[in-house]
C-alpha cells in the first residue's frame, strides 16, 4: 500500500486545518455589520425571543422602532397549530380584515433587505383559506392578490419568507402597507426583518459602482443600471454543489443560501469541492458571499466527448414580464487550472449568449479567488405566466480542459417601471424556499437526460423541452404533488410525520395494485417480508411494493427511517420512493420498479448474462455517485450503513440506484456517531465494529467490498472455502499483496481489462478497505478515480472494440508489501446478522 491516496499524517493535518478554520469562522466578527437590523415579531408581546439563527426578535408591541397605523388592537392572534413550525417568529401574527400599515423609524438611508415571514394557519377568528391581500412598500407593490394559504397548499410546509431589496431615501421612513382584497378577506404577517446592505452589493447606482461591474442587459444593451428606483425580489439563492447555508452563517446580512441545487440542475454534473479552501477576496468584497459558496461547485466531469456535445444546464422557473438580475459566482478550485485559457466556457442566459469566453483565471489572476458576474435579462410575457429561465454553460472547443464550472447562483426579479414586483397572473410558482416541485422536475428529467446523452445534443434539447412541458402539466394535477421532494433536513428531523412527506396509499389501492398480494407477483422474499411487482395509476405505472412483516419491531423503525430519508432525498442514483401505506398496521413501501433487479443478480448464482467490465465500472460509478450524494448532498451527511450488492438496484438501462435506507443514520460533520453496530457480515467496517463509532468511512469500506465482489464475482463470505479465503475483503488484500489477484477475478473478465484501469481499480478498492476509517478515501475521491478508470478502459477499447487484446490483466506494481492485520474474528464477535435488511429484493 505504497500509494495511499491520502496518507494518514496528511489527513490529520487536513482535519486540524479544517477544525481551526471552522473555529475561526465561529468566533470572528461578521464581514459586514449592518447599521440597521430590525426584527419584528408581529403579534407578540415578548421582549426578546431567539430563533434558530440566533436572531433576537422583538415583539411589535414593545418595539420602539415601529408603529402600527391605524392603531387598532383587534388584529393580534396566535397561530393555533404553530407547534409544527420552528416557532420564532411564526407563533404569532398580526391580522386584519382592513388595511393596516407598519411604519419603521428611524431607518438610516440606503438599500435594505426587507424580509416578510408568513405562517399559513387558522388563527382565532381568521379562517386559514380566507387570506388574500396586497403588500406595498411606499410606491412598490411587493405582493398582489397574494394568498399564503394557496401558496402553502402546494408545499409540504406552512412557513416561508419572501425577501426584497428596497432603498430608503434620506429622511424617509419605511412603510409596509397590507391591503386585504375585500372585506371578506384578511391580510396578515408573522414577522418582518429589515437589514441594511452594502450599497454596491446588488445595486449598481451610477457613481457608486465601477463601470465594469454594471451588468450587461443580455440581448438588449451593454449596460443596465440597477438604480434606487428599482426594487428587487430574491427568487433563487443557491450554493451550487454544496449544502444549505443558514442565515447566521452568512456574511452578516442573514441571507439564506439553499444547498443541493441538483434540484435545478438539468444535466449531469460532477461536484468539485475543497472544504479547506480559503478564498482570496482580492477582486470582490469579502461580504459578497460566505466562503462555503466558493468551496464547492458543479462542473461537467472528465468526459471530454460528452462535454463537447452538451451543456451544463440549470432551469429556474420564474414569472414572465420582468427583468431579472442573474448573478453567477465563480471560483477556480482545481489547482491544475492556474493559467488563462485552461478552462474556458460560454455562458448562455435564457438561451442567449451572455459571455463568449468565460475564463475565471483571466478574471481573477489566480485560483482560489472568487468572482461573480451579473447579467440582467428580460423575460418577455408571451401569454404564459411562467417560464423556465435557463443558465447554460458550454466549454469552448479550444480550451485545454473541456469543462465548465459554477459555484453559486442568485436570481432577483426587478420591479417594473410602475414599481410592481407582483406577477400579472395570480400564479403560484415555486419559490426558493419551497423547493419541492423543482425536485420533482429534476427526478423525472434527469432520467430522461441519461437516455438522451447517447443520442446527441440536439435531441437532448428537444427532450428537455418536451419533458419540461409534460412535467409542468403534471405537477398541476393533484397526483404529481404526491411525493414531496426536498425538505431541509434540519427543519424536519424526526418529529415530522411521514404523512407530510410522501404520498399515502390506501390498503385497497395496494391490494388492487398487487392483485391482493398475489404470490405470482412476488419478486423478492426476505426476513422483512415480500416484495411484489405491482401496477398503480390504473395499471399504467409499474412499481415495486415492499410489504414489511408487521410483527417486526425493528421493521417499524426501519419503515419510518426509510420514508423520512427517501422522501427528503432525490438523486438519479438513489431509488425513488413513490409512497407508502400504513393502514391497518401494514407497513408497505412503494418504489420505482427496477427492471434489472439487484447488482448481485448479475454477478453470480444467476442465469443473467455476465456484465461486461465497462458495464460493471459504470454501475460502480453510479453507486459511488449515489453514496457521495448521501454523504455530502444534505445538510448533514447521511450514512447508509448497509451498502452491498443486493442494495444496488439496476434499472432498464443498467443505471445503478442505491436502495434500502432502513438502517441509515444522519451524521454530524466530522464527528462520529456512536451506535450499536449494524450492517451485513462481510461488508461491515472493522473499525466501526470495534469502536462503534460510525462515520461515512464505514460506507466507503462496504463500497470497497462491493468493488471486489464486482471484480471477482463471488460471495463476500463463503464458509465453504478455505479459512483464508472465506472473507473476500481480506482474501483480496492478501492476493494483492502476493501479486496473485489476477487468479481470483471473474474468469469472464480475464483479458478484458486494460492494465492501467485494473491497477487504478485495485488501488481504489484496496484503499477503501483499509482497516482504519481515517486511511480510507472519501466517496468523492473514489468517484473521481472510478471515472478515470473508465476513461482509461475506454481509451484502450476505442480503436478496436470488443476485441480482447490484453493477455495479462495484472501489472507487477500492484503487488505491494505491507502488513495487513486479520480482523475476521473481530467481525464475528460484533455483528448481528439478523439485522441486515436487504434492499427491496431478497438477499
Ligand atoms: C473583509 O474586508 C475588509 C476590507 O477589505 C477587511 O477590513 C476585513 O478585515 C475583512 N474581513 C475578513 C473577515 O476577512
Ligand atoms: C384595546 O383594547 C382594550 C381592551 O380590549 C381597550 O381597553 C383599549 O382601549 C383598546 N385600545 C385601542 C387603542 O383601541
Ligand atoms: C390543528 O391540527 C389538528 C391536528 O394536527 C387538526 O385536526 C386541526 O384541524 C388543526 N386546526 C387548525 C385550526 O388548523
Ligand atoms: C385579484 O384577484 C381577483 C380575483 O381573484 C381579480 O378580480 C382582481 O382583478 C385581481 N386584482 C389584481 C390587481 O390583480
Ligand atoms: C433631511 O432632514 C434634515 C433635517 O431635518 C435636513 O437638513 C435635510 O435637508 C433633509 N434631507 C433631505 C434630502 O430632505
Ligand atoms: C434609474 O434607471 C431608470 C432606467 O433604468 C431611469 O429611467 C431613471 O431615470 C433612473 N433613475 C435615477 C434616479 O437615476
Ligand atoms: C463519454 O461520452 C460519450 C459520448 O456521450 C459516451 O459515449 C461515453 O460512454 C462517455 N464515457 C463516460 C466515461 O461516461
Ligand atoms: C500550474 O499547474 C501546473 C500543473 O499542476 C504546475 O506544474 C505549475 O507549477 C503551476 N503553476 C503555477 C504558477 O502555480
Ligand atoms: C447550449 O445551450 C445553448 C443555449 O440554450 C444552445 O444554443 C446550445 O445549442 C446548447 N449546446 C448544446 C451542445 O447543447
From TrEMBL:
Gene3D superfamilies per record: Galactose-binding lectin, Phosphorylase Kinase, domain 1, Transferase(Phosphotransferase) domain 1
Pfam families according to UniProt: Malectin_like, PK_Tyr_Ser-Thr
Domain Protein kinase: residue ranges: 517-790
This protein's GO CC annotations: membrane
Membrane topology: Single-pass type I membrane protein
Cited SUPFAM superfamilies: Protein kinase-like (PK-like)
GO biological process: response to metal ion
UniProt KW Protease keyword: no
Main location: membrane
Keywords: ATP-binding, Glycoprotein, Kinase, Membrane, Nucleotide-binding, Serine/threonine-protein kinase, Signal, Transferase, Transmembrane, Transmembrane helix
Subcellular localization, as worded in the UniProt entry: Membrane
InterPro entries in alphabetical order: ANXUR1/2-like (IPR045272), Kinase-like_dom_sf (IPR011009), Malectin-like_Carb-bd_dom (IPR024788), Prot_kinase_dom (IPR000719), Protein_kinase_ATP_BS (IPR017441), Ser-Thr/Tyr_kinase_cat_dom (IPR001245), Ser/Thr_kinase_AS (IPR008271)
Coiled coil: none
Binding-site residues, ATP: 546
Signal peptide: 1-28
GO molecular function annotation: ATP binding; protein serine/threonine kinase activity; transmembrane receptor protein tyrosine kinase activity
Ranges that cross the membrane: 449-472
Protein's name in the database: Protein kinase domain-containing protein
Organism of derivation: Lithocarpus litseifolius
Amino acid at each position: 500500500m505504497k500509494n495511499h491516496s491520502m496518507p494518514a499524517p496528511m489527513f490529520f493535518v487536513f482535519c486540524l486545518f479544517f477544525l481551526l478554520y471552522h473555529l475561526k469562522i465561529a468566533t470572528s466578527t461578521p464581514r459586514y455589520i449592518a447599521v440597521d437590523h430590525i426584527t419584528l415579531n408581529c403579534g407578540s408581546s415578548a421582549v426578546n425571543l431567539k430563533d434558530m439563527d440566533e436572531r433576537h426578535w422583538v415583539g411589535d408591541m414593545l418595539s420602539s422602532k415601529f408603529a402600527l397605523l391605524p392603531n387598532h388592537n383587534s388584529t393580534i392572534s396566535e397561530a393555533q397549530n404553530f407547534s409544527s413550525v420552528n416557532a420564532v417568529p411564526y407563533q404569532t401574527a398580526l391580522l386584519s380584515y382592513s388595511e393596516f400599515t407598519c411604519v419603521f423609524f428611524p431607518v438610516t438611508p440606503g438599500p435594505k433587505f426587507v424580509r416578510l415571514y408568513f405562517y399559513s394557519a387558522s388563527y382565532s377568528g381568521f379562517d386559514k383559506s380566507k387570506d388574500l391581500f396586497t403588500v406595498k412598500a411606499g410606491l412598490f407593490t411587493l405582493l398582489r392578490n397574494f394568498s399564503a394559504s394557496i401558496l402553502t397548499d402546494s408545499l409540504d410546509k406552512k412557513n416561508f419568507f419572501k425577501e426584497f431589496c428596497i432603498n430608503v431615501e434620506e429622511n424617509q421612513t419605511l412603510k409596509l402597507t397590507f391591503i386585504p382584497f375585500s372585506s371578506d378577506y384578511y391580510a396578515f404577517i408573522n414577522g418582518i426583518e429589515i437589514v441594511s446592505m452594502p450599497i454596491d452589493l446588488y445595486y449598481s447606482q451610477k457613481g457608486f459602482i465601477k463601470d465594469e461591474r454594471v451588468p450587461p442587459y443580455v440581448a438588449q444593451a451593454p449596460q443596465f443600471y440597477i438604480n434606487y428606483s428599482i426594487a428587487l425580489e430574491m427568487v433563487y439563492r443557491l450554493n451550487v454543489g454544496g449544502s444549505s447555508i443558514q442565515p447566521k452563517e452568512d456574511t452578516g446580512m442573514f441571507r439564506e443560501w439553499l444547498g443541493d441545487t441538483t434540484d435545478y440542475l438539468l444535466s449531469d454534473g460532477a461536484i468539485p469541492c475543497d472544504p479547506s479552501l480559503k478564498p482570496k477576496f482580492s477582486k470582490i468584497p469579502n461580504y459578497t458571499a460566505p466562503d462555503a459558496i466558493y468551496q464547492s461547485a458543479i462542473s461537467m466531469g472528465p468526459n471530454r466527448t460528452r462535454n463537447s456535445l452538451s451543456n451544463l444546464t440549470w432551469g429556474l422557473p420564474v414569472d414572465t414580464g420582468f427583468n431579472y438580475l442573474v448573478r453567477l459566482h465563480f471560483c477556480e478550485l482545481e489547482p491544475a487550472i492556474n493559467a488563462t485559457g485552461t478552462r474556458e466556457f460560454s455562458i448562455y442566459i435564457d438561451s442567449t449568449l451572455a459571455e463568449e469566453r468565460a475564463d475565471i483565471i483571466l478574471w481573477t489572476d489566480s485560483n482560489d479567488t472568487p468572482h461573480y458576474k451579473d447579467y440582467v435579462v428580460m423575460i418577455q410575457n408571451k401569454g404564459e405566466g411562467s417560464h423556465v429561465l435557463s443558465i447554460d454553460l458550454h466549454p469552448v472547443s479550444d480550451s485545454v480542459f473541456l469543462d465548465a464550472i459554477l459555484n453559486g447562483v442568485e436570481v432577483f426579479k426587478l420591479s417594473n417601471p410602475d414599481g410592481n414586483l407582483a406577477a400579472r397572473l395570480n400564479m403560484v410558482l415555486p419559490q426558493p424556499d419551497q423547493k419541492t416541485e423543482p425536485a420533482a422536475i429534476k427526478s423525472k428529467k434527469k432520467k430522461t437526460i441519461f437516455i438522451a446523452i447517447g443520442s446527441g445534443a440536439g435531441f437532448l434539447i428537444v427532450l428537455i423541452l418536451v419533458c419540461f412541458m409534460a412535467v409542468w402539466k403534471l405537477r398541476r394535477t393533484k397526483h404529481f404533488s404526491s411525493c414531496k421532494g426536498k425538505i431541509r433536513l434540519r427543519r424536519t428531523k424526526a418529529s415530522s410525520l411521514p404523512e407530510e412527506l410522501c404520498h399515502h396509499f390506501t390498503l385497497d389501492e395496494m391490494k388492487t395494485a398487487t392483485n391482493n398480494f398475489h404470490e405470482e407477483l412476488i419478486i423478492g422474499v426476505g426476513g422483512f417480508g415480500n416484495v411484489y411487482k405491482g401496477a398503480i395509476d390504473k395499471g399504467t405505472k409499474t412499481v415495486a411494493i415492499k410489504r414489511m412483516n408487521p410483527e417486526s419491531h425493528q421493521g417499524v423503525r426501519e419503515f419510518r427511517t426509510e420514508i423520512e430519508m427517501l422522501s427528503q432525498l432525490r438523486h438519479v442514483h438513489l431509488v425513488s420512493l413513490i409512497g407508502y401505506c400504513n393502514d391497518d398496521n401494514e407497513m408497505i413501501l412503494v418504489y420505482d420498479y427496477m427492471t434489472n433487479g439487484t447488482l448481485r443478480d448479475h454477478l453470480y448464482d444467476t442465469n443473467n448474462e455476465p456484465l461486461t467490465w465497462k458495464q460493471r465500472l459504470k454501475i460502480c460509478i453510479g453507486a459511488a455517485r449515489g453514496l457521495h450524494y448521501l454523504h455530502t448532498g444534505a445538510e448533514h451527511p447521511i450514512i447508509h450503513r448497509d451498502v452491498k450488492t443486493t442494495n444496488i438496484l439496476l434499472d432498464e438501462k443498467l443505471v445503478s440506484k442505491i436502495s434500502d435506507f432502513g438502517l441509515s443514520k444522519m451524521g454530524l460533520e466530522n464527528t462520529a456517531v456512536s451506535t450499536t453496530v449494524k450492517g451485513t457480515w462481510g461488508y461491515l467496517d472493522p473499525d466501526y465494529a470495534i469502536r462503534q463509532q460510525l462515520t461515512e468511512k464505514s460506507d466507503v469500506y462496504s463500497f470497497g467490498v462491493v468493488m471486489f465482489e464486482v471484480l471477482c464475482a463471488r460471495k463476500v463470505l463463503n464458509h465453504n472455502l478455505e479459512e483464508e479465503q472465506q472473507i473476500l475483503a481480506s482474501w483480496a488484500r492478501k492476493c494483492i499483496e502476493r501479486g496473485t489477484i489476477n487468479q481470483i477475478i471473474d474468469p469472464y473478465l480475464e483479458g478484458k481489462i486494460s492494465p492501467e484501469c485494473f491497477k487504478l481499480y485495485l488501488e481504489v478498492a484496496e484503499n477503501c478497505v483499509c482497516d482504519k476509517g481515517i486511511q480510507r478515501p472519501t466517496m468523492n475521491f473514489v468517484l473521481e478515480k472510478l471515472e478515470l478508470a473508465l476513461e482509461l478502459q475506454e481509451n484502450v477499447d476505442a480503436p478496436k472494440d470488443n476485441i480482447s487484446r490484453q493477455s495479462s490483466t495484472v501489472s507487477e506494481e500492484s503487488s505491494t508489501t505491507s502488513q495487513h492485520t486479520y480482523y475476521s474474528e473481530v467481525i464475528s464477535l460484533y455483528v448481528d446478522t439478523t439485522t441486515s435488511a436487504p434492499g427491496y429484493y431478497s438477499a
